[in-house]
Predict the structure.
Amino acid sequence: MRWLAPAALVAAAVYGQSGLTGPFELRSVKTESVTYKGRKALRVIADPGAKDGERLAMLKGEPFKDGVIEVWVSGEPGAGAGTEARGFVGVAFRTHPPEFRYEAFYLRPTNGRTDDQVRRNHSAQYVSEPEHPWHQLRKNFPEKYESYVDLVPGEWTRMRIEVKGKQAKLFVHGAQQPTLVVNDLFLGDDSGGIALWVGPGTLAHFADFKISAN
């Protein structure tokens, strides 16, 4: 494995029942195909020197506007991660690679069962990079773009994202009701690519990736 330059292209595969394959364009991450806790998966490791919001494995293909994205994810702090690492892992959609513009839902697995209630309330997050990162949203719109969900670092977690127009919903663990609802996506009724998303200090795994476009 090696770090790839921002524009480097590699062929990679997300293994699973969907059979979906790359190639991916990697931005400040490295990847390898592994078997992790019973699933064939793509391991994604964050570059510790990258800027926040710029660690992506972008799937090359047709633009995505409305539809459903499903994936199993696992996130945990990687080796040597700092105390602020949370195992950040998620999915970016309607991406515009040159400017790192995208919408995303991601999880903070170490927050899920902590005794700190404030951290628990920050287990699931929506962001719209680069204009609306998490810290700006938390400051300007307290509680609106974050929510609690039960999570365990390093364990497989099912994510389902439904996108329609300016609305997106995040479902976790196969729940019938969403964990987080965003009715005013900052990029509006847009279209773009899809990417696997990781945050700083993260060791992540992705499997059974499926896209259903409307």
Q: What stands out?
A: Residues 1-21 have pLDDT under 50 and may be disordered. The chain has two helices and 15 strands. The helical segments are 117-120, 134-140.
